[in-house]
Amino acid sequence: MSDKRTLIAVMGDEDTTTGLLLAGIGQIDPKTNDKNFYVYKENKTTKEQLEAEFNTFTQERKDIAILLINQFVADMIRSTVDSYVEPFPAILEIPSKDHPYDPEKDSVLKRVRKLFGE
Coiled-coil segments, which residues (predicted)? Predict the structure, then answer.
């Protein structure tokens, strides 16, 4: 199952996404024009669009191993992110330039704390 998952995807603000694309994670399928990145645009991107992209990366795409998502973007669709329990793709919440990381909101850390009884 995991041998076909070779890509890292990103959902984030323009600065985060651009930085990761410059680092080399960008990929566009020439046949379908599917991208492994999504740029959140403040005051233009809706919650429904974020949920649709999240579902595409986590449920429809079978080539994504890791989904990096800005924590403030994940907060906008927190119930969807928290309800995702599949091992692949792994969801990692990351900070952005304008929004610091808050470990209390991270869904993975919440599960780890619950596992250890904290």
Answer: none
